[in-house]
Amino acid sequence: MKISFINSPNIGKYRELKKYTEKYWKNENIENYKNFLMIIKKIKIEKIFYQINNNFSNIILGDFSMYDSILDISCLINSVNSSIFINKKKYFSFARGDKDVSPQKMTKFFNTNYHYIIPNNLNNLKLNSNFLIKDILFLLKNGINPTITIIGPISYLYLCINKKYQFKNLLEIYLLIIKKIKKLGIKEFQFEEPILCSKINNNWKKIFNLFYKNIDILFCINSVFKLNLDNILILNNFNCTKNIILENINLLKKNFINVIKNNLNKTNILYISKQFDFNFNFNFSIENCKFLPYNLNIEKFKDKKYLSFYFQKINELKLLKKIFYNKINSYDLLYLINFEIYNNKIFIKNNFKKITKKSNKLNLKLFTNNTIGSFPQNKEIKISRKQKKFFLISKIEYENILKENIYLCFLKQIKFNYNILVHGEFERTDMVEYFSENIEGINKTLNGWVQSYGTRYVKPPIILNIKNSNNITENWFNFSKLITKKNIKIILTGPITILKWSFYNDELKFFYCLKLSDIINIEILKLQKKFNLFQIDEPTIKECLSINKNIWKNEINNFLFCFNNCTKFIKINNEIHTHVCYSLFNDIINFIKKMNIDVLTIESTREKFENLKIFNFTKLNLGAGIYDVHSPIIINKINIKKNIFKISNIINPFKIWINPDCGLKTRNWYELNYSLNNIKEILLEIKNIF
Fold first, then answer.
1. Beta-sheet pairing, 442-443 with 462-463
2. Containing H/E element for 96?
3. Could you tell me if 156 and 70 are in contact, meaning their C-beta atoms sit under 8 angstroms apart?
4. Angle at CA 304, nearest 5°, toward 303 and 307?
5. Residue 594 CB-half CA count within 13 A
6. pLDDT tens digit sequence for 359-393
7. pTM of this structure
8. Residues designated catalytic
9. 218 has which bridge partners?
10. How far is the C-alpha of 145 from the C-alpha of 188, rounded, in Å?
């Protein structure tokens, strides 16, 4: 029996990659560039060290990325269609954009919250970067012959925009990569094929056979997520190593117990090997450690004894091997004796009533100018938050600083001619983390960071139970009401997103979601005494659905009920907004049509507004995003006019809301003053014409 990981976290134990990358972006001088390269090398060496030090059977190389692993392959094979050899500076331009390159389209990786840059051009493929080759040569020079892990060509093709008639080019360039790397002395490849977790048709199966039967090197194929058993026979067609993957990235130790009970029975393993022609050479792997926090030992919440992070998973893999060979010692027995499983019940009300969808209103104002929610959090806020954490300032002093910034934020929005104001969300470090802090039963981590996209990291809360909520937003919005008589939009995080951006027991996900919807519903009930406009953000609707579409119908009905349950006490004359970002809307358009909402905001600029067409026949008012907030490019007036014109050609102008994309907190006020002022002036020009 062998043990290994498919991949491991990228960001560094203390988020070093984020800090040095953003410092380099801010000032691209030699010193920052050298420090940036040093941190990259440090993280890569650490990843190799953890594997060697724990006697892993395969030393995995290729799972590190500076920004996005799919973009890494796109740059390697030139699907970004670059005319020059791609260095690190050019690499970032495809993700973020610059004066010469528009940022590439982005969406979420299967049903995770990890965002990837979508490949879009397979016509001019060639080997066009040497990032991977340099890493291989470095390890070989130090006497380590690694297993190269890489996203498989079939899954890469599946993630592309333009798939038709181009797969042969892609398969050929992959074969060239294998040939080139094999010449260096590499003996084994690991292909990640997450497409195997979904239902695939015969055409995809034929492409699998076409590629993997032509490989003349030792390799294994990993599904990364839970393998769809309908696809397992595909693997029997190839001469490859089969891994038994300990599925589900759930942090609960319950999974570890299940593995001991179900997978480590040698009789069962022999039966599996006969059924599916497996060699009795098993490699137990844990999937998707890339999306796990690093270390549980530094955390302080009381329920951590039920959980495992990345470093704990390493120890558990080693323990599985010992159990398999009956070589456990007294320390291992002590670990197992103290192995506790969380089994508290969650209580929900059972007096459910059908929630009927109210009819949508037509926006009576032409091009309503507003924003989705957050604004930049300046250094004063960030420093005062740390001071409060270490008791250097009192809670009252901290809240007064936030109130000053809310007041200033209102003044700036009035300057930008916003018809509807937001309070800026300065009290929130993260939209989900903030809500979880105020809900009893949800655990918050100190350093449980995982990557969302690029240098955008989040700390997913850990849901073991949900009881009651404290005063989540009421005080902040009541203060906001004292400042201005203008219409204020209440920003709340929806139950589906709180659930998806947390770690939780998958078996209880609908119970958790329903309980969360009750909490948001009560929050709205308190607030609608003074407010009439509510935005319930749900950016992760599609990602909360299973990868296997066969069970979508029941899941959609359950999640839809949970969202609409939030709105059951909203008065008929009040307005409901939601926000969904970087999604594949063709998959969830019927879900969106049944949501009890009036206005939907999405990101469309990277899509060139092509994703708006599907909303043309809905009754919803739509905010499409006038410029890409996730790029450092400041939009000029000409492009604002072009974008408004493109949206107006697809959507009725009286149903259009004008807003930047979400995530203004990731920018700074210097950038926003230019961008938002340009939008204001263009809208004034348009309204003067009408």
1. antiparallel
2. helix 88-96
3. yes
4. 115
5. 16
6. 666 666 778 888 988 898 888 899 999 899 888 99
7. 0.89
8. 630
9. 188
10. 9
